[in-house]
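help with this:

***
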Amino acid sequence: MKPGDIGIVSRTKTIGGMRRRLLDIGLVENTAGECIGKSPGGGLSAFLIRGAVIALRNEDSSLVLIKDMRRKK
């Protein structure tokens, strides 16, 4: 996702501790999330999920499958 994109979580392909962390922060099926920024080096992305801003490494966020992605107006 690029800054300004909004997507709906379809599912996550994570296991173990990372899966638990994503579930704990509210990243569950049918949750909307907005990409609000990327780090200058490109290794992190910030997302607004359920009113909280979270940062995920690109390798972790790539394991979250998104459906119904659109640009914020």
